[in-house]
Amino acid sequence: MSTSMYETVMGPAFAELAEPVQAFHRTRGRRELHGWVETEAPASLPARLLALCLGTPLKPSSGAIRFELEAEPDCELWVRHFPTNTMQSRMRLREGELTERLGLTLLHFRLGAREGRLVMHLQDLKFLGIPCPRWALPRIVAEEEGRDGCLYFTVRASLPLVGQVAGYTGHLVVQETAKA
Predict the structure, then answer these.
(1) What separation in angstroms does the CA of 134 have from each of 100, 131, 140, 144, 157?
(2) Sign of the CA dihedral 13, 74, 147, 179?
(3) Are 55 and 88 contacting, i.e. CB atoms less than 8 angstroms apart?
(4) Contacts 24+ apart (CB under 8 A), 128-137
(5) What is the dihedral of CA 46, 48, 53, 56, to 10 degrees?
(6) The whole model's pTM is what?
(7) Fewer C-beta within 10 Å: the chain N or C terminus?
(8) How far, in Å, CA of 144 to CA of 172, rounded?
């Protein structure tokens, strides 16, 4: 079995991740996962316009999430069906680095493991192919942790002078637990 994109990028650190996180990132083919999510509204009108361009949630909500994953060794399509909207992104392995195409934006991430969690560190961003200056890079929190057969996620993105553009937390059931 070939290694997943995340195993390739993280190397030995992949083994430090909690089992549900590893299982999620070893998925091959098409899979649909279900769980629960809470979304937050963008912080300002400029943040709302950016959220609209990215497809991230525009309103606060709480409810069921359906997550469609189409995973190949060097590319993954993620479709998140939030209670109020759908957001799609494409992860790719490029030159040993993980990139995410989200709307008109291309993000480059370094991946790390911390206490069993996957932590994504933004390294670079291009909007419409134009590199973002380092001082203007968004502050991104993108973490996953696993327990009880679930993948728990926290995602937040904010820009200087604009505020939070996106924010959502929740979980996906990765492994069905045996019924007693």
Answers:
(1) 18, 9, 13, 25, 15
(2) negative
(3) yes
(4) 128/104, 135/160, 136/160
(5) 140
(6) 0.91
(7) C
(8) 10
Token pair listed for 54:
């990215």
Q: What is the mean pLDDT of residues 99-106?
A: 92
Task: Note whether 124 and 108 are within 8 A (CB).
Answer: yes
Q: Which residues pair with 178 in a beta bridge?
A: none
d(CA 159, CA 162): 5
d(CA 178, CA 162): 46
User: Measured between alpha carbons, how far is residue 52 from residues 2, 6, 62, 112, 128 in Å?
Assistant: 37, 28, 19, 29, 15
Reported confidence tier of residue 37, pLDDT bands at 50, 70, 90: very high
- pLDDT single digits (tens) 13-36: 999 999 999 999 999 899 999 999
Would you mind telling me the total number of residues written for the chain in this entry? Answer: 180
| 111 touches 98 (CB < 8 A) | yes
How far, in whole angstroms, is CA 59 from its chain's centroid? 19
How far is residue 79's CA from residue 92's CA, in Å, rounded to a whole number? 15
Residue 148 backbone class (left: φ over 0; alpha: ψ -120 to 50; beta: rest):
left
